[in-house]
Design a protein that fits this description.
Blueprint lengths: L6 H4 L16 H32 L3 H17 L1 H17 L4 H7 L3 H16 L7 E6 L5 E8 L2 E6 L3 H13 L3 E5 L5 H17 L7 E3 L4 H10 L6 E5 L2 H10 L12 E5 L5 H13 L8 E7 L5 H10 L3 E4 L1 H4 L8 E3 L2 H4 L7 E7 L2 H11 L4 E5 L3 H10 L4 E4 L19 E2 L7 E2 L6 E8 L7
Parallel strand pairs: 3-4, 3-6, 4-5, 7-8, 7-12, 8-11, 9-10, 9-11, 12-13
Antiparallel strand pairs: 1-2, 2-16, 14-15
Helix pairs in contact: 2-9, 3-6, 3-8, 4-8, 6-7, 7-8, 11-12
Family: Belongs to the gamma-glutamyl phosphate reductase family.
Pfam family, one: Aldedh
Pathway: Amino-acid biosynthesis; L-proline biosynthesis; L-glutamate 5-semialdehyde from L-glutamate: step 2/2
């Protein structure tokens, strides 16, 4: 991870209090405490405004919320030049600080990507509203009528890094699901995010929805992110989105409930029966279409008898992929294809670049054992013509997404028809996989009676 985009840039260290071990607090430490108190007050005030906005959103019907989504999309396109100008400043600053190409790709917005964000908002507007939908219900023998209905989570906070698209995605999903959001997007994208948040807030205000449903705490810097993580009772759930260090720092330090969106050490197992042409097409797409994202393949496991192995490795090398292979794979590389020796660091690494770890296995047992050891629980895939092997892979892989004979790039909210996503949850409680509208709701029980009492 580059210096411009470390967890410390997003979260920072806990603010310490005055040094009372000596003769007393210095003027400098007293000033520091005052600044810390002001930051805490500012973030808490934003959270309180968000709570009020969330209560208003909870009463908004679908048509009203959809109108807000469409207005945001229109204004993103109408003010595209303003967004691109701000984004150019962030990208230039990132290049100057030595940000990696993978992170620069995530940071960069283009006219096409802005159109894509607007299109995702339009898709969201076309999806059913999860709020108020009935999960289950019944009438008891005593006449009580029960319904378990979906309701908004309330105030959702998000901490993410160098990903301005997340600003729009989370704002749109939160609006449709009736939640208010507090955003900490980090210094790498501060100019872009500031413009995007202004556009979103102005759009909400224009259709009569509360602008405070979307707020940024970027102005409070790293200390503000720490306050956000500790704002128990003011923030209902916190969603970190980024690399391993960022996510684990939030998980380890937050006092509010966290939905863990994980890194993607994604595997593809090339079975002995894998068709050559299919295998080549899938691997090229899964690795090279957009290598900087979490659903790109990072490790390829090849069966010792897979006929497609040579063609796949040759195609990947020709596409510029740098192979990190074990001894058995290096011994059978096609002519003109080179590979570095792989080690345990490669098996556990999320490259997010044009690098791929490759290992040979004797059978599915060995492939499954390798995946169990190194998986991050994001996405695993198999390429096979053997139905029994496909079914066994599905049954035994414990990840948020399991794919048979398709690219891992489909583990994406938009691709799966969710309109957009807050992130890919790799945990098992509440939400798992791409987090769309339904995953931003909880439930409550509604019990209606006619004077019944418990005996």
């Amino acid at each position: 991870m580059s210096a411009v985009n470390t967890p410390t840039d997003i979260i920072g260290n806990e603010t310490t209090g005055p040094d009372t071990a000596g003769t007393g607090a210095t003027a400098e430490s007293a000033s520091s405490v005052t600044a810390a108190e002001e930051i805490e007050a500012g973030v808490h005030a934003a959270a309180d405004r968000a709570r009020i906005a969330a209560r208003r959103l909870a009463r908004a019907n679908r048509a009203w919320k959809d109108l807000g989504l469409q207005e945001i999309g229109r204004n993103l396109v109408a003010k595209r030049d303003l967004v691109l100008a701000a984004n150019a400043k962030d990208v230039a600053a990132g290049k100057k600080k030595g940000t990696s190409e993978a992170l620069l790709d995530r940071l960069t917005l283009t006219p096409e990507r802005i159109d894509g964000l607007a299109g995702a908002l339009e898709m969201l507007a076309g999806l059913p509203d999860p709020v108020g939908s009935v999960a289950r219900g019944q009438t008891l023998p005593n006449g009580l009528r029960l319904r378990q209905v979906h309701v908004p989570l309330g105030v959702v906070a998000a901490i993410y890094e160098a990903r301005p698209n997340v600003t729009v995605d989370i704002a749109g999903l939160a609006l449709k699901s009736g939640n208010a959001v507090l955003l900490r997007g980090g210094s790498a994208a501060e100019n872009t995010n500031a413009v995007l948040v202004d556009i979103i807030r102005d759009s909400l205000d224009a259709v009569g929805l509360p602008a405070d449903a979307v707020q940024s705490v970027d102005e409070y810097g790293r200390a503000g992110a720490n306050v956000l993580m500790k704002a128990r009772g003011k923030v209902d759930v916190l969603i970190p989105r980024g690399g391993r260090d960022l996510i684990q720092t939030v998980v380890a330090n937050a006092a509010v409930p966290v939905i863990e969106t994980g890194e993607g050490n994604v595997h593809i197992y090339l079975d002995h029966s894998a068709p050559v042409e299919m295998a080549v097409d899938i691997l090229l797409n899964a690795k090279t279409q957009r290598p900087s994202v979490c659903n790109t393949v990072e490790t390829l496991l090849v069966h010792r008898d897979a006929a497609a192995t040579g063609d796949v490795l040759a195609a990947l090398a020709a596409a510029g992929v740098r192979l990190h292979a074990d001894e058995r794979v290096r011994a059978m590389l096609p002519a003109g294809v080179d590979a570095q020796a792989a080690d345990d660091e490669d098996w556990g690494r999320e490259y997010m670049d044009l690098d791929l770890a490759v290992a040979m296995v004797d059978d599915m047992d060995e492939a499954l054992a390798h995946i169990r050891r190194w998986t991050t629980g994001h996405t695993e895939a198999i390429i096979t013509n053997d139905l029994a092997n496909a079914e066994r892979f599905i049954a035994e892989i414990d990840s948020a997404a399991v794919i048979v004979n398709a690219s891992t790039r489909f583990t994406d909210g938009g691709e799966l028809g969710l309109g957009a996503e807050v992130g890919i949850s790799t945990q098992k409680m509440h939400a798992r996989g791409p987090m769309g509208l339904r995953e931003l709701t909880t439930t409550k029980w509604i019990v209606q009676g006619d004077g019944q009492i418990r005996i």
